[in-house]
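Renewal narrative, Specific Aim 1. Our central claim is that a sequence can be written position by position from structural information alone. The example that follows is taken directly from our test logs and has not been curated for this report. It begins with the structure tokens describing the chain, in the order in which they were read.
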């Protein structure tokens, strides 16, 4: 039996998974995972009916240098920590590898540029492959690890961004990628006369380049699978609109059926909808889900895929007010009908966010690993994590101008600061204040539990040009801060709030998981 088959055999139970970000978010989750909160979170996930977690493992950050190849031992230790704790809790683990985005400290190339460089540079490509081998070596040593997968998302935007570059850059990329001699057997009449340059977005030849993207990406995934036998792939479910000569054509993407059962996919209510801000009922949502599973699973012939993003609530800010959503009162009925459908057509599902999260811009926000990334003046690092600020103590961090989450189209005037402090040691009178880029100081105020908050003024235009310098100063009695969050955006799924308290859809999600568990028991008894 192959290594991949052994791993699948070891985890036969229908997968009920949650993407686990600790009290962080996808861009910093490995940086903030720590005990005892890790154990508490995993117990909570078990109580909510999940039997697995999905962890994102970034390429940037985990691998700190490509020439020569070098790794950050802290990231590797953090990955081993969560694998160990999950295994002891009886949870399976799936790793999404090569995740593009990450909050980094110090100068860095953006994720799309870094991926583009990897696609055209042999040395960077080898470093990327070595990263996969490194993560695979760690993952394969833990019996709780059900597998790893790489997503189309990590590469797709890099390919399409070539189309927005200069003619010379598109010409160089065409040669480096091998596009200049790509001869598609599908619809050869669409092959442009000039293969020496990648077509600009919307130009003639865009459909041909779309086919090349899928061809090149599939080759890359196959190469990866030779190094990592347990690797799965999340394929692009969406169709793509290509406009040529004023006409729009909708192009399909390959479904990687030969990767069964290591295929991963996604669904949200916007699929097959008009997407004009409409609300749909349970029957419409179920029809959309059934149609997607029929198309991607060849009408039941391939039931092994994992619907790793079952986003029955989708709150992506970019599409709010436009994408279709399920009526709140219809969610319970929808999930009741969706459970047997998923059980029949899939081998598991995943929830993107079992807990709402803040899009925190700070690096190492829990001050782990000796406070890496922070400047301390008169402050001390207690055992474990956090920082103790005596009177006059100051905590500072400088972030580079390239901060991926900053929404260029949605400027703001303040960032929300939340500071979690050690319970039982909060002075009666607070004298904590914070500022950004030398601007006006904002005083922190008491909030619920051990939380202190402030809305810190910020000159939005200074962030893309100068970066972000954050300062926290204590002018009063000593205080110990355990966790910081500085954010403008947040993501809400409605299952639990950022502190883990029950949300409006938790009860129906628990019943959904219970129904899937019972279907598994019935199958085993049959």
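The sequence written for that structure reads:
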């Amino acid at each position: 039996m192959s290594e991949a088959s052994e791993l699948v055999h070891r985890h036969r139970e229908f997968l009920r998974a949650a993407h686990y970000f600790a009290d962080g978010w996808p861009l910093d989750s490995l940086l903030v995972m720590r005990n005892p909160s890790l154990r508490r979170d995993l117990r909570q996930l078990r109580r909510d009916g999940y039997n697995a977690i999905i962890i994102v493992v970034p390429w940037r950050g985990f691998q700190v240098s490509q020439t020569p190849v070098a790794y950050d031992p802290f990231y590797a230790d953090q990955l081993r920590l969560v694998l160990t704790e999950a295994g002891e809790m009886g949870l399976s683990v799936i790793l999404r590898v090569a995740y593009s985005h990450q909050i980094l400290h110090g100068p860095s190339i953006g994720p799309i540029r870094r991926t583009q460089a990897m696609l055209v540079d042999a040395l960077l490509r080898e470093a990327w492959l070595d990263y996969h081998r490194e993560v695979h070596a760690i993952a394969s040593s833990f019996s709780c690890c059900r597998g790893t997968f790489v997503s189309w998302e990590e590469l797709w935007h890099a390919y399409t961004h070539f189309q927005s570059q200069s003619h010379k850059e598109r010409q160089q990329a065409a040669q480096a990628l091998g596009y200049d001699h790509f001869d598609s057997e599908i619809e050869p009449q669409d092959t442009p006369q000039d293969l020496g340059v990648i077509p600009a977005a919307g130009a003639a030849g865009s459909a041909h380049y779309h086919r090349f993207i899928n061809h090149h990406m599939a080759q890359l995934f196959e190469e990866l699978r030779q190094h990592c036998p347990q690797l799965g792939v999340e394929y692009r479910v969406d169709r793509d609109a290509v406009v040529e000569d004023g006409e729009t054509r909708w192009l399909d993407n390959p479904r990687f059926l030969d990767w069964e059962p290591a295929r991963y996919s996604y669904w949200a209510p916007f699929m097959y909808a008009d997407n004009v801000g409409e609300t749909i009922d349970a029957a419409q949502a179920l029809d959309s889900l059934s149609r997607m599973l029929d198309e991607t699973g060849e009408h039941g012939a391939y039931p092994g895929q994992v619907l790793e993003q079952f986003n029955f609530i989708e709150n992506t800010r970019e599409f709010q007010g436009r994408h279709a959503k399920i009526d709140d009162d219809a969610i319970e009925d929808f999930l009741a009908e969706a459970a047997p459908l998923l059980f029949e057509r899939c081998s598991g599902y995943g929830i993107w966010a079992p807990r709402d999260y803040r899009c925190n811009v700070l690096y190492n926000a829990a001050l782990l690993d000796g406070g890496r990334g922070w400047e301390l003046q008169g402050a001390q690092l207690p055992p474990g994590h956090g920082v103790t600020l005596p009177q006059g103590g100051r905590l500072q961090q400088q972030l580079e101008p390239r901060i991926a989450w900053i929404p260029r189209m949605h400027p703001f005037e303040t960032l929300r600061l939340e500071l979690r402090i050690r319970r039982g040691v909060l002075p009666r009178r607070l004298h904590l204040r914070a500022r950004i880029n030398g601007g006006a100081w904002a005083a922190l105020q008491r909030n619920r539990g051990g939380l202190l908050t402030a809305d810190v003024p910020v000159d939005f235009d200074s962030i893309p040009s100068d970066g972000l310098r954050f300062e926290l100063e204590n002018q009063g009695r000593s205080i110990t801060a355990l966790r910081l969050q500085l954010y403008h955006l947040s993501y809400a799924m409605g299952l639990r709030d950022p502190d883990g308290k029950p949300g409006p859809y938790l009860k129906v999600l628990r019943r959904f998981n219970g129904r899937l568990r019972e279907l598994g028991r019935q199958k085993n008894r049959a």
